[in-house]
Structures are given as C-alpha cells and as structure tokens.
Automatic annotation (TrEMBL):
<keyword id="KW-0175">Coiled coil</keyword>
<dbReference type="InterPro" id="IPR010377">
    <property type="entry name" value="YabA"/>
</dbReference>
<keyword id="KW-0862">Zinc</keyword>
<keyword id="KW-0963">Cytoplasm</keyword>
<dbReference type="Pfam" id="PF06156">
    <property type="entry name" value="YabA"/>
</dbReference>
<keyword id="KW-0479">Metal-binding</keyword>
<feature type="coiled-coil region">
    <location>
        <begin position="34"/>
        <end position="71"/>
    </location>
</feature>
<dbReference type="GO" id="GO:0006260">
    <property type="term" value="P:DNA replication"/>
</dbReference>
<dbReference type="GO" id="GO:0046872">
    <property type="term" value="F:metal ion binding"/>
</dbReference>
<dbReference type="GO" id="GO:0008156">
    <property type="term" value="P:negative regulation of DNA replication"/>
</dbReference>
<keyword id="KW-0235">DNA replication</keyword>
<keyword id="KW-0236">DNA replication inhibitor</keyword>
<protein>
    <submittedName>
        <fullName>Initiation-control protein</fullName>
    </submittedName>
</protein>
Length: 122
C-alpha cells in the first residue's frame, strides 16, 4: 500500500506540474493576443486622431468657402446687383440677339446673362 500512495502522490504532483505548465503557455498565448489587440487599438486611435484633424481642416476650409461665397455675392457692384435681381426674376440681362429684358423660357439658366453678371470685372 505504501508504494501505491507514493505512486499516487507522484502522479498528482506530475499532473499539478503539467497543469501549471499548461496554464503558463495559455497565459503566454493570452498575453500575445492582448499585445496584438493593444497594437491594433493604438493604430485605430492614431487613425481616428488623424481623421479628426483632417475633418477639422475640412470644416475650416468649408467655412472659408462659404465666407468667400457670401463675400462674392456682396462684392458685386450696385449695377451688377440690379442685373442679378432682374435675372433672378426671370429676365434676360444679356444682349445676345436683342434678348435683354425679355422673359427667360421656363426660367432656364442663361450662360450669357451669368457672364454679364458674374463674369470678368473690367
């Protein structure tokens, strides 16, 4: 009987050691996964920061464009503002084929009128 107890103790110790060895390797695998996830999370955080900065720059650029657009509308001379008002009411302000003052068909845009209003300022 004494030999059986010794053999049982030996097996229990061996199983205990093997269990600790298995737990050690599982812990190492888990640490490797944690490091991989940590690295991926850092990459995502960096990308997010870059996108936030880019988004802010785009918002600033959009605000500049809107301001510029508002200033362009206000930058028209008084006579061009009057022509713009007539054009928006549906009349031609260009003198192509003596169209000045005639009603635009279905209020379709006229590039010649737009050139007179917004074209190169002399």
């Amino acid at each position: 009987m004494l030999s059986r107890i010794n053999e049982g103790d030996f097996l229990n110790k061996r199983e205990l050691y093997d269990s600790f060895a298995d737990m050690g390797s599982e812990t190492k695998k888990m640490l490797d996964k944690i490091e991989t996830i940590k690295a991926e999370m850092m990459r995502v955080i960096e990308k997010n920061a870059e996108l936030e900065i880019e988004n802010q720059h785009l918002r600033e650029h959009l605000k500049e464009l809107e301001t510029q657009k508002q200033n362009d509308g206000q930058g028209l001379s008084k006579s061009r503002q009057n022509l713009e008002m007539l054009y928006e009411e549906g009349f031609h302000v260009c003198n192509i084929d003596n169209m000045y003052g005639t009603r635009r068909i279905n209020d379709e845009p006229c590039v010649f009128c737009q050139d007179v209003i917004y074209g190169e300022r002399r």
